Fold each of these.
Amino acid sequence: LLLSSDSPLSLELSAKNNMASPSATLSLCSAFSAHCSVAPPRSLSKPSLSLARPAIGFLSTSAASTSRPAFPAAPKFAESAVVAEPETTDIEAVVVSEDKPKREEIFAVVMVGGRQYIVFPGRYLYTQRLKDANVDDQIVLNKVLLVGTKTHTYIGKPVVTNATVHAVVENQGLNDKVVVFKYKPKKKYRRNIGHRQPNTRIRITGITGYEEYPASPNVAV
Amino acid sequence: MTRIKRGYIARRRRTKLRLFASSFQGAHSRLMRERTMTQQRIRALVSARRDKKKRKRDFRRLWITRINAVIHETEVFYSYNRFIHNLYKKQLLLNRKILAQIALLNRSCLYTISNEIKK
């Protein structure tokens, strides 16, 4: 049972969460930023990826777990915190989100493939093709530039030390075809070339390891 | 040589052209025999190629404008250029795309960042 909100407009989840308007809009922004792959590579150091193949895989949470306290006090057990949504009689909140566990309100900015992405646990992301990764591999992303929780922001200079983002490789595919049409007028030169860039879809399972880093409390807006 | 009729070769090519130009305005989506559709298709593809490069510039301008707008609100006499200078001095690696997204949606986080780098 894979549990995630695939569609970028997953606002139905926000109907139930009271503190969700930043996270709902943040989820919009992550979808936007994931698809808007135009950041020129300005990284000073090369991104490094390590493949971790543990014996116990991080399985995505199943909907049928028992209820637990909502916002995790110990973020280490982030992936397994599950909250059963209370049954309400709201008409707007009809949508499926009754059994969906409350996601922790955390995001990270991670650099993969020379590009930076805003990343939420449970959502997926298209990155440049990771050459040595096979499907269903656990992946650890080390270049975490920023971790943000509800109360604190951990700003990396340049990297948040020991922070890692765990992800699972879902699919190694190709982007949509773009037509590269080269043409010189009056010189009888035209070339019609199609191009599909290889990509990898990874699903983020958790963000860990940022707790010991000096945090800055969020400024009240 | 046996006689070969060309069958549907030409029709397939023209159908593809018609589909491509189907959203163009006026005669540019209708006139196949006067070659208008072919020419408009070429112009469209050339524009697409050129604008793929321009898109990177356009978005960077947009992000800079957005960051500038939010940074001006933090305090008097503070602007995008000083913010980026401080960013580089503190060796942060966040790029303008991420900063602009944070500015849009999680504005308190951007204020936190700008206070942190001003220290």
Note: Residues 1-88 of chain A have pLDDT under 50 and may be disordered.
Amino acid sequence: MSQQAREDQLQRKAVVLEYCTRRKRKERKRKSRGLSARQRRALRLFDIKPEQQRYSLFLPLHELWKQYIRDLCNGLKPDTQPQLIQAKLLKADLHGAIVSVTKSKCPSYVGVTGILLQETKHVFKIITKEDRLKVIPKLNCVFTVEIDGFISYIYGSKFQLRSSERSAKKFKAKGTVDL
Amino acid sequence: MAGPVKDREAFQRLSFLYQAAHCVLAQDPENQALATFYCHTERTIAKRLVLRRDPSVKRTLCRGCSSLLIPGLTCTQRQRRCRGQRWTVQTCLTCRRSQRFLNNPGHLLWGDRPEAQLGSQADPKPPQPMPNTAHPIPAHLPEEKVQPPNSSHQ
């Protein structure tokens, strides 16, 4: 009889009643503020086209920077301790400053002057007067920044930070000051 | 509230970066990469040092891709009616992220409470239901006329 046959079948065999597997949920993209890798892929940095946009276009930026620094230091030449100004410069922003390389381990970098456009963790991006975008590593370089007669030297090896982290970090005098 | 020196310097730096981004965009309206970089730096600094920003400034920065939002150039602004209320919707063109602001004339004073005198929160968009309103936004660039579609979402 078919029913007995069925029961026989059911008793001998294992019947899978429920199929239950837990799938690991894929990581939800909850970062509405992050997306760092993808952002950078969208070329947040420079295109080469702006090289056609000349150096003269960034001069107003430089003027703005000068005003900002004057405002920060409260005066042109107060004859006060240069240490104060140094301390403020450490926390200040250098975008738009005219920097030049005085000393460097690689001689081809020495003498490069221009307006600082971008500052990332290891590198300065500078545009020179000939409208060339130069990428200069901070390591083993000494940069000169000049404001109103105050010349300050920046040792790039100690400055290997993103500009935003720099304002949050306290600097200690460590190690020898050398290239 | 005392104003410790570090904060003032940091705020000056933030405001400088913001102005620099505007300046760069004014010189060169096509390339927004540099302005986005500056705004990203700004946002990182504010996050690190936990600095409060005025809401009117925050609204001009996109939260997703941290680019400077200038309606007509970098983002679009539309007025929509949703559930019987007037909203202004700003959409960033780079990351296509939208923000909505309620546009209610009776709601103007909520940023102006006596406890927190952060300055008057003047609603920059006049609540007019008619189209072809040129929004008064302080930008150096020519503003496009926004045509809000009269679409009612219900």
Note: The helical segments of chain B are 5-27, 33-49, 55-58.
Amino acid sequence: VEKSSELPLDAKSEFVDFQWKLGLAASCDSCRSLKYPYVAVMLKVADHSGQVKTKSFEMTVPQFQNFDRQFKEIAAAIEAM
Amino acid sequence: MCFCILNGSFCWLQPLRRLGGGGVQLSPLGAGLPTLYLHHPGDSHSSQVGFLGAQLPPEVAAMAQLLGDLNRSTFRKLLKFVVSSLQGEDCREAVQCLGVSANLPEEWLGVLLAGMHTLLQQALHLRSTSLKPNTFRDQLQELYLVRDLASIVFGSQRPILYSVAQQPGAWLPHVADFQWWVDVTISTSALAHSLQLSVLMQPKLSDGLAYHRFEAPIAKFQELWYSMALVLKEMADLEKKCECGLQD
């Protein structure tokens, strides 16, 4: 159920917005009692021309926890400066 | 001769048979063949819609006219070429040679090939559950084509021919797979504790081109479900009408 996309590493792209959703896939055609939690993210990025592009992806709970840890590390690095 | 109701009026129809003796005579109705209904005379109210449809395709009707006088082995050879061409082979040269050796004029070759091709395509396109061998034979009985065609449509080559017939040609793609999820949105960046239910659907088409995943909130899902029930009901009604014979 994961749709992952590469974030552009183009330095001229600018972060615009971050929207998220915490969801639970209750059931599906192959599994009636799925109960699969996930975090879906919609990232808005503006490229050098100003055009806003949307990137969507999903994370499992462990993936999100890793994601969260990255941000904590970034915050710690900023603090240390 | 038999009466047949055609577009609300009565008219004479030539039955699908060779006329007179010796040599093929095309029906005097010739190129302007009226639409022919595949049923027995005097039986118009109980006929089932055949696999060729309520209206016999003109190329099949034209072919049937020529069959009466066609040599059986020539017919079989032509049929073999049609089957090979359905599988993608180029048989044009071989067909021309056969036409020369069997002394068949080119336009007859064209009529025969077109008719056989259409007939086989129509039959092979149907699943073997919806067209039974006996029904097929009965319907072909009226066209004097029985044994050879039945052995192709229901013989050992059927799986290959069926899969070729399923390939996209003039047909629209069909749904090959359908996945769904019931999704609960617990909270979002815009709204905490939203607890919204929605259905996520992902149909995959037989042409494999694109898969679409879309979301339907519960209200939209109910509408979709209602529409499907309506379509099923219409299909059932139509089936009943066909069983009772089409009235015009």
Note: The two ends of chain A are 39 Å apart (CA to CA).
